[in-house]
From TrEMBL, chain A:
This is ArsA family ATPase. It comes from Streptomyces flavofungini. Residues 5-180 form the ArsA/GET3 Anion-transporting ATPase-like domain. Coiled coil: none annotated.
Automatic annotation (TrEMBL), chain B:
InterPro entries: ArsA/GET3_ATPase-like, ATPase_ArsA/GET3, P-loop_NTPase. Residues 354-367, 381-391 have a biased composition (Low complexity). This is AAA family ATPase. The lineage of its organism: Bacteria, Bacillati, Actinomycetota, Actinomycetes, Kitasatosporales. Residues 21-291 form the ArsA/GET3 Anion-transporting ATPase-like domain. Gene3D superfamilies: P-loop containing nucleotide triphosphate hydrolases (3.40.50.300). Signal peptide: none annotated. Coiled coil: none annotated. SUPFAM superfamilies: P-loop containing nucleoside triphosphate hydrolases. PANTHER family: ANION TRANSPORTER ATPASE-RELATED, ARSENICAL PUMP-DRIVING ATPASE ARSENITE-TRANSLOCATING ATPASE. Residues 344-391 are annotated as: Disordered.
Length: 324, 464
């Protein structure tokens, strides 16, 4: 199993949720996992209903199987100062650089540097070992930038290649790429069964593959339950007389067939028509996703919205599907 | 169950029709339909007579196609088949192209060539977080100053934080004009490393640190870049400041776009607060993909209970005999069936027919022939009624379950929305009913425009 699992997806598909559920699922198997956030949105803290995460690895959940989930929100500025201190003992100069705007420059403006720092920190956690030579974490899960930016984000080497052909940034980028392109890494894409997210996923798979980055699984999130099957849809929408439905509604105690129950028929059929349209669309999108030779997983839409209990439910579902 | 719409509906048409509205900025987190909203607003405004340009940042291919333009580029293209006297133009921001144009416009040919071929410039213009935001604002400023359109609708970049497009231009502007650049410029200006001696010790230590951090080659690229850009500095910050002021001006209206989900609305709330703090004029919130129901008076609980009742009845009549047998003897079961049939179909006849069918397999064929005429017509009539009777119950139960799911979704969306409106009661809201599929053409955009303008969910409240 890959020790660095990167979770990306179009905005709004719930990649943070899937990343967290994956970390929980792995922890449930007794693994020590680190859930990493790189975009400063504090999505993990909100999901686990804890206060904002600092730039520090902090335990946020203990799983039933005895494993643990740690979380880290990587702050590029602090990661840079960290890095300067670690490699160059540049503590005070670091502060001076900050005053000058150089840190701001390096972390927000200089192309690629920010990404090298973020991926670099995650890779450091992947490779870190304790005193006895064991890995500090069995698995690192990254809540990564969205699909549209993921290849550029991970492909730091290319990004800084034109920029730093030699020197420390170049070396750091090389080290990061060695981890990212190895079998140690897997990039998962989260999507919904809608045209735009699926199109973005398909494009994302192609881009990642072209860059030589390992694509893992496609996770379809928020799948709505199939409430009517095709036969029912056809029957309901094409052939069943409205009066029959009205009578049946009336017999179920929802008012008179020509009164309250009768008035329900049109809106109920309209909802069924919408459902049918979406059902057909979802089927088509599922087929598109199926053509890429990647394992496809589906997570249900949680009826009552997502809370901590729902997160554990999704983690259970991922384990059930053998994803972890 | 009556579902009240948001208390203060946003009047989209009034906003679009007002000639004083010159810029509409759509902002919000990713995946909420920002770009589609921008395109739909642009189309609606054009069809209501205005001359509009829509600046999209990263439109999905299908959205560009929906405007009849296969690939949008950095030049506004007129959209065909727009009804009425207005005009719609659409373009997609090409950040590198926009940056190049600035360089070409502000430097002489040789210098421009030097800048455009500099590796640092190439990465800066193509890649970094913030260029897109800066260039979007730059483009907005350019479009505004051309004054060819009386309304500009802008989509904002899918930033990691929704606020980036307000901050990034300033950040880039101040970087390009700032102390760091001047420091980097100093050695290049006075002749390479020799210039270092004019700097004080602290400064040279920092340049040393910078060299270590960035690598010598990168530092030299930056220095060359900076030297070449020399004459252009000052301009960046000035333009960033000008665009920022343009956003605060009375002709500008911000629309925060969200979907009725927790994360999207939380981001929307941040946005509302930030816009207020920056004195940016907020017109309202567009809440996309809101679900409604024409049968909202039927609650999820009642619908589910009714569906279960129907399924139970269906199961009893057509389900496995074993299950029935456990409850009653064969004869009793038959009586039950009869009773159910009678109650169910309000005609004794039908009930009797039902029970006669259940006997049919057992009855000798001779029996059948004796009543052949009657059986034939009633049989044909009946087998249809029997089959669809079963299926109608099954189908109706399905419709009810579908409705229960819809009502639960609706309640959840409403709850999420109400949390936002409780926090920001001052914000006008336009709710856009969810479409089952994606937008593929101008008609799709028109439908969204209609839904935007009607500002309430169809079927949400009867008679509205």
């Amino acid at each position: 199993m890959s020790r660095l699992q990167v979770v990306s997806g179009k905005g709004g598909t719930g990649k943070t949720t899937v990343a967290a559920a994956l970390a929980l699922a792995l922890a449930t198997e007794g693994k020590r996992t680190l859930l990493v956030e790189v975009e400063g949105r504090q999505g993990i803290a909100q999901l686990f209903e804890t206060e904002a995460l600092p730039y520090e690895e902090r335990k946020i959940a203990v799983a039933p199987g005895g494993g643990e989930v740690y979380a880290l929100a990587i702050d590029p500025e602090l990661a840079l100062l960290d890095y300067l201190q670690m490699f160059y003992k540049l503590g005070s100069a670091g502060r001076a650089l900050k005053k000058l705007g150089a840190v701001d420059f390096a972390t927000t403006i200089a192309p690629g540097l920010r990404d090298v720092l973020l991926t670099g920190k995650a890779c450091e956690a992947v490779r870190r070992k304790d005193k006895r030579g064991r890995y500090a974490y069995d698995c690192v899960i990254m809540d990564a930038p969205p699909t549209g930016r993921i290849t550029r984000f991970l492909n730091v080497n290319d990004e800084v290649a034109g920029l730093a052909k030699i020197g420390p940034i170049h070396n750091q980028a090389q080290a990061v790429m060695r981890v990212l392109k190895s079998p140690e890494t897997n990039v998962h894409l989260v999507t919904l069964l809608e045209e735009m997210p699926v199109q973005e996923t398909v494009d994302g798979i192609a881009e990642l593959r072209a860059a030589g980055l390992p694509v893992g699984r496609v996770i379809v999130n928020m799948v709505r339950p199939a409430l009517l099957d095709e036969a029912e849809l056809e029957l309901g929408l094409e052939r069943t007389p409205r009066t029959a439905i009205a009578k049946t509604l009336a017999s179920a105690g929802l008012g008179g067939a020509r009164g309250a129950a009768g008035r329900l028929v049109d809106p109920l059929l309209a909802q069924a028509a919408e459902y049918a349209e979406r059902y057909a669309l979802e089927g088509a999108q599922r087929a598109v996703l199926g053509t890429h030779g990647l394992p496809l997983h589906e997570l249900p839409l949680l009826a009552d919205g997502l809370d901590l209990a729902g997160l554990y439910e999704l983690a259970g579902e991922l384990r059930h599907q053998g994803i972890s | 169950m009556s579902l009240d719409p948001a208390r203060d509906p946003l009047d989209v048409d009034a906003l679009l029709d007002d000639p004083k509205t010159r810029i509409v900025v759509c902002c919000g987190s990713g995946g909420v339909g920002k770009t589609t909203t921008a395109a739909a607003l642009g189309l609606r405004a054009a069809e209501r007579g205005r001359t509009v340009v829509v600046l999209t940042i990263d439109p999905a291919r299908r959205l560009a196609q929906s405007m009849g333009i296969d690939s949008l580029d950095n030049v506004p293209r007129r959209v065909k088949d727009v009804r009425g006297s207005g005009e719609l133009h659409a373009m997609m921001l090409d950040m590198k192209r926009t940056f190049d144009e600035i360089v070409e416009a502000h430097a002489d040919a040789d210098r421009a060539r030097a800048i455009l071929s500099n590796p640092f410039y190439q990465s800066l213009s193509a890649g970094f977080a913030g260029t897109q935001e800066y260039m979007a604002m730059e483009k907005l400023g350019q479009l505004r100053s051309r004054d060819e359109w009386d309304l500009i609708v802008v989509d904002t970049p899918p930033s990691r934080s929704a606020l980036d497009f307000l901050d990034a231009p300033k950040r880039l502007g101040s970087f390009l004009d700032g102390k760091l650049i001047r420091l980097l410029m100093a050695p290049a200006k006075v002749g390479g490393r020799a210039g270092m001696k004019f700097l004080n010790v602290g400064m040279s230590m920092m340049t040393g640190a910078l060299g270590k951090l960035l690598g010598g080659q990168l530092l030299r690229d930056v220095q060359t870049f900076v030297a070449a850009m020399d004459t252009m500095f000052g301009g960046f910050r000035k333009r960033a400041d000008a665009t920022y002021r343009l956003l605060q001006a009375p002709g500008t209206a911000f629309l925060v776009v969200a979907s009725p989900e927790r994360d999207a609305l939380r981001e929307a709330a941040y946005f509302v607060e930030r816009l207020a703090a920056d004195d940016m004029p907020l017109a309202g919130l567009v809440l996309n993909r809101v679900h409604g129901s024409g049968a909202a008076e039927l609650s999820a609980e009642r619908a589910l209970a009714a569906a279960e009742g129907l399924e139970e009845r269906y199961g009893e009549r057509y389900g496995e005999p074993g299950a029935e047998g456990s409850e009653a003897s064969g004869a009793d079961a038959e009586e039950n069936l009869e009773a159910v049939g009678i109650v169910d179909q309000e005609g004794g006849n039908v009930g009797l027919r039902n029970s006669s069918e259940s006997e049919a397999p057992n009855s000798p064929e001779a029996n059948g022939t004796s009543t052949s005429t009657k059986n034939d017509e009633s049989g044909a009539d009946h087998s249809g009624a029997g089959d669809s009777g079963a299926s109608v119950e099954q189908l109706t139960a399905g419709l009810l379950r579908l409705h229960a799911e819809r009502m639960r979704l609706l309640a959840r969306e409403r709850h999420t929305r109400d949390r936002f409106t409780a926090l920001h009661p001052e914000v006008a809201v336009a709710e856009v009913a969810a479409l089952p599929g994606d937008v593929h053409d101008l008609d799709g955009l028109r439908t969204i425009g209609d839904r935007l303008a009607s500002a309430c969910v169809p079927g949400d409240e009867q008679g509205r």
